[in-house]
Design brief:
Blueprint lengths: L1 H6 L1 H7 L16 H5 L5 H13 L5 H25 L18 H4 L5 H13 L4 H15 L3 H11 L5 H12 L16 H7 L20 H12 L1 H4 L6 H9 L2 H17 L22
The structure holds flavin-adenine dinucleotide (FAD) and iron/sulfur cluster.
Length: about 290
């Protein structure tokens, strides 16, 4: 915690949503595991960060952003888990059925952002929030990976894995499987978003600016395909109106080409039912967990 306060907190706000090719940790605190096992209390971490602001050593956007992660997210998901379980774990609002893509276990993919996120996960037992949500999570959402398969992966690979934090984030925030209880809209995004927030795309064989064709970033067609597939459930969500407006304005032949491109990608996606999963990590074997 002292290392974070001295060297990272001041830049936390500016870079908290960034993804870097080479900086595995950026300005994140790496305090989640210590918090989850009780070595640190959320209150002492928040108060220590606040003190740095009061002492003029860190700007308000950094300190507010950091405290919000703990008070606004960590403690919020804690409440959600303990008030909604055990039914919460069985939800699958979008009806996802796909097994986990095989590369989540070995990083063997030519999609560079995913490759780096899985590599960093394997190297460190850690990936920061935006990698979990907008890279590995976003891809699973767009492909329709079933909640139990994705939850097993997040529980298996991260040093801070704890079901009460992991489940609302994966089932709720990433997969929108709780129908919008955790977040008011799915965090779906195309390759353009990843290109804006990271420096990965310049190292990739795909182009984030192309939607169809051999060089097109798969996130792009998958994004529109996801919106088409779940139109009935999502189009009346006020926060999705703009994007469905764009989809509706698209020419029919373009929509057909995008649909075909995404479907072709999904048809050849190699999945791994049960592959590599340590048998003790699946919380799905039991109804409740501590
Ligand atoms: C799919 C998915 C699964 C996740 N699984 C876990 C998990 O099993 N255990 C876990 O502790 N966190 C989990 N998170 C939340 C978050 O990604 C990690 O807490 C964070 O990346 C840990 O790194 P850090 O300590 O450097 O965080 P920082 O970016 O430095 O943030 C500070 C602290 O805020 C808290 N925090 C930030 N975001 C969240 C969030 N969305 N939910 C809860 N707490 C948050 C953490 O305690 C973290 O240590 C998950 C997020 C996603 C999207
Ligand atoms: S082009 Fe697409 S797959 Fe490649 S790094 Fe960028 S977002 Fe990822």
């Amino acid at each position: 915690m002292r290392h974070f306060l001295d060297h990272c907190l001041a830049d936390f706000g500016r870079y908290q949503d960034a993804i870097s090719e080479n900086a595995d940790f950026l300005f994140h605190s790496r305090l989640s595991a210590a918090l989850n096992i009780g070595l640190l209390s959320p209150q002492e971490v928040c108060q220590a960060a606040e003190q740095r602001y009061l002492d003029g050593q860190a700007p308000i956007n950094a300190v507010e952003g950091f405290i919000r992660q703990i008070l606004g997210w960590r403690e919020y998901v804690r409440g959600l888990y303990w008030t909604q379980m055990p039914d919460y774990k069985r939800r699958n609002a979008l009806g996802f059925e796909r097994d986990l893509p095989a590369f989540y276990w070995d990083a063997k993919t030519d999609m560079h952002c995913l490759k780096r996120a899985v590599e960093m996960t394997m190297d460190n037992g850690y990936a920061h929030h935006i990698q979990r949500l907008m890279v590995t999570g976003n891809f699973a959402l767009l492909c329709g990976v079933k909640p139990e398969a994705l939850c097993d992966w997040y529980l298996a690979v991260y040093i801070d894995a704890c079901e009460w934090v992991e489940l609302p984030n994966t089932l709720g925030m990433v997969l929108h499987a709780d129908g919008g209880q955790m977040g008011s809209k799915p965090y779906c995004a195309s390759g353009k978003y990843i290109n804006k927030m990271s420096d990965h795309c310049q190292h990739c064989r795909y182009s984030p600016n192309q939607v169809t064709g051999e060089k097109a970033c798969p996130f792009n067609s998958l994004y529109w395909h996801f919106l088409e597939e779940h139109r009935d459930t999502l189009q009346h969500n006020p926060r999705m109106k703009l994007i469905y407006g764009s989809l509706d304005r698209m020419a029919t032949d373009k929509r057909t080409a995008i649909h075909d491109q995404a479907q072709q990608f999904l048809d050849q996606l190699e999945t791994s039912p049960g592959y590599g999963q340590p048998h003790h990590t699946s919380g799905y074997a039991t109804e409740t967990s501590s």
